[in-house]
Design brief:
Elements: H1 3-33, H2 41-61, H3 65-73, H4 77-82, H5 85-96, E1 102-114, E2 125-134, E3 140-149, E4 157-166
Antiparallel strand pairs: 1-2, 2-3, 3-4
Helix pairs in contact: 2-3, 3-5
């Protein structure tokens, strides 16, 4: 075998290897995505509306146990599997009251569909994200509202979890 034939063979072998690896990676990614579920545009819009409604209720609730109890009772099964009504209310008060009054909230997007999340029973979930400014603190907070697509006839989104944290500020 001469030098030119050897180089041609090496190039062909490398191309075949790269093509095979690309196909394998594509099949692996497709297999990973099958563990989730597809969330269409209309479902994302419904999830956003549900999350905005939940946040509005939580913003207005303050320490009002009746309002917090209503949010809890309208939540998904995963919420009541995770918290009691009292522990839920205490957690929300601890997370939101120190922030003060909500000044502005900007929709950031919907991540999903997840079929499992840490410390939450299996189901179909999305996480709706917002960037929010509050009266105290001066930081913008990232808020995440986890929702579960309820099985059954209504196929509606129900509240599961609330999380907030200050956005990381880049030093100047």
């Amino acid at each position: 075998m001469n030098y030119a034939t050897l180089k041609s063979f090496q190039a062909t072998a490398l191309t075949a290897f790269c093509l095979g690896f690309t196909l394998f990676a594509g099949f692996a990614a497709a297999a990973d995505s099958s563990t989730g579920f597809k969330v269409g545009l209309s479902q994302r819009n419904e999830a956003r509306a549900t999350a905005e409604n939940v946040l509005k209720q939580l913003d207005q609730a303050g320490q009002n146990k009746k309002v917090l109890s209503d949010v809890f009772s309208n939540g998904a099964d995963a919420l009541s599997a995770r918290y009691s009504n009292q522990s839920f209310a205490a957690r929300i008060v601890q997370a939101k009251v120190p922030l003060g009054i909500m000044i502005s909230r900007k929709y950031h997007g919907v991540d999903g569909g997840f079929t499992s999340l840490p410390n939450i029973i299996p189901g179909n979930y999305v996480i709706v994200k917002f960037d929010t400014d509050y009266g105290h603190g001066g930081n913008t907070y990232t808020e995440q509202v986890t929702l579960q697509l309820t099985p059954g006839t209504d196929n509606s989104w129900k509240y599961v979890e609330y999380y907030s944290a200050p956005e990381v500020q880049n030093p100047k």
